[in-house]
Each structure stands twice: as structure tokens, then as C-alpha cells.
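User: I'm curious whether this sequence folds into something compact or stays loose and floppy. Could you predict its structure so I can see for myself?
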Amino acid sequence: MPTQLGIAAVAVAFVAALAMMLGAAAATKVAAVVVVVLGTWWWGGSSEVEPQYSGAKIEGDVVTLDFVKKMMDDFKNQKCLHRRYAFQIVLQTREMLRAQPPLVDINVPDGSHFTVCGDVHGQFYDLLNIFELNGLPSEENPYLFNGDFVDRGSFSVEVILTLFALKCMCPSAIYLARGNHESKSMNKIYGFEGEVRSKLSDTFVELFAEVFCCLPLAHVINQKVFVVHGGLFSVDGVKLSDIKAIDRFCEPPEEGLMCELLWSDPQPLPGRGPSKRGVGLSFGVDVTKKFLRDNNLDLIVRSHEVKDEGYEIEHDGKLITVFSAPNYCDQMGNKGAYIRFEAPDLKPNIVTFAAVPHPDVKPMAYANNFLRMFQ
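Assistant: Here's the prediction. I'll summarize afterward.
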């Protein structure tokens, strides 16, 4: 029996034995790790780059700016990245994200700037346009992408590999936060899982799911600006220390602090109300102001909702929603936006932009077949 098949057979037997001893739930978690480890070994050890491959290549272990530019140009021309290099990028990103806390503190020196982007949702050509308008990420031009990198848009693989490659190139140039779409259940329905299977392989589905569980849940800029994908909480008194204590290495639960960070939305009325999404909650200006006061913060920046102008300022100027996917799903007609903060005052400078053309691949092209019936 070939070595790879033999090891795979042993792994299957190992998971089956665990299922008998520990139960199906525990065995499922172990199986996911085994799949990732086996897949990593399989491709890392045997996925040789064919001589005819003319795409972007990583020499050794270092992801360079030249590689990233070549890869982005290949993606722009609808060319694929070799799976060997995709594995290298995703695995390096996993290790960097795993080492970060659930709440990341970002320091922007006086005289420097920092850019926050909202949902990109697989709109790769609009991501390229952001970089055209605002420059590529670098130590002098750092970015935070605030979740929902994938799903809906049909160039999600290109988006996530670009963001991850930039993270590998220069970790301090780009920060990445988890959104509600960085989850298995959403990816299965809204297209990312199908796109990964089509453009990469089944093994990458499990690998991306594991990496998404390593993404931080929130960021704080200069101890003043709280950045999170969704919003605030169903209870008062939540401190930044409570967020730092969350065990995030899992699929998002259906309730609790982690769920609410990823899913909640602001509402115009004070107090709290049910979520229009059925998950998380809606929170009013009083909730926003109390959270800021309790944690000595000045502003909340969040994403998660499409806005006609690409952004909306609410709650007496204490909360900004930023959304960076213009003409969302090729049909909403909205602008995109990003926020550029200048230190030390951190006054938000909001830049809006229109959608750019992309190849004739419809949104949700890789989505669940049942869901596509309604597009």
C-alpha cells in the first residue's frame, strides 16, 4: 500500500476508535484536526509545482511583496494560484492568528494613519480598487478588515488568499477580524464552501474553517476606538477584559458574548430589542454610550450591514457602520466606504467609492443550489 494511503487508513481507524471511546462529538473535532494535518502533509510533501505552471511562486518560506503583486495580477486575470502556495499562505496565517488574543490592541503612532474597511464579501475587484485608492497595506499604511471577507461574492477565494498573503508578507500591515460569515454554516449556504471545492480542494474547506476559528473578535485602536464586526451585548457591564477572556477557537455559538459581537446591530430607539436576523440583538444609543463610558472609549466602528452611502453615523456620532462592498451582490446600488484615522486625534475620515467592473461571474455562483433558485 502506498505510504499516503496507509497513513490515511490509520487515521480513519484512529478516529473510529475515538468515536467509540469518547462519543461522536469529540471524535468529530479530532477528525477535523486530522483532516487538516493530513492534508497539510499530503500537499506540502507531494504537491510538486508542475514545470508548466507560470503563476506566482513563493521562494522558500518568505511571502514577498513581488509575490503578492504577481498573485493579485494573476487573480485579476482569472488565473489560479498553485495549491502548494495556497497551503503555505493559509498555514502561515493560521499560526499568526492563533497567537493573537481575542481582542487585539493596535497602536497608531502620532502623525501616522490607519484604515478600517468593512465587509468585502468576495468582491475581489472592489478590493483591488480599495488598494488603488488608498495604497497597498504596509507598515506605513496599515489596514484592518472587519470581517465578512467571503460568501455571496464569487471571488471569495481570491479575496481571502490576498488578505492572508498580505498578512504573511507583513503582519503589522494588516489586521483581520472575524465576521459572522467566517463560519462553517454560513460558508455552506452562501457560496464560499462550494467555491473552495471548485478552485482548491475539499481539504481546504476544513483548513479555512480552522483558520477562521483563530481570527480575533475585536480590535481597539489607541485605547479609544473599538472595532467589531457586529455590535454590543444583551447585558450591561461588559468590559474589554471579558472579551479578552472569550475562548474563540470554535464555531460561533448561538448566544453569548461571542455571538453578539458577530451578529448584533444598532437600533434608533434606546434600550434593546430583538434582532431582525434572528441571532444576536438590536441595541440603542444608551447601550452604546454606557459601553464606551465603562471602558473609557470614544467610538465604536462596526460593519455587518449594507448602507446606501457605504457608511452610516448613528448614536449621536458614537457609532459608525462601514461597509466596503459597493453594489452589493451586483444589485443593491450602494457605495462602498472605508475609514482613515489619523493619530493622535483619530478623527474618522470616511472615503466612499463606487463599484468597478468584474468578470461575468454572478454572485452566489457557488452557493447552495436551493438558495440559487431565489437569486
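Summary: Residues 1-43 form one domain. The chain has two domains: 1-43, 51-373.
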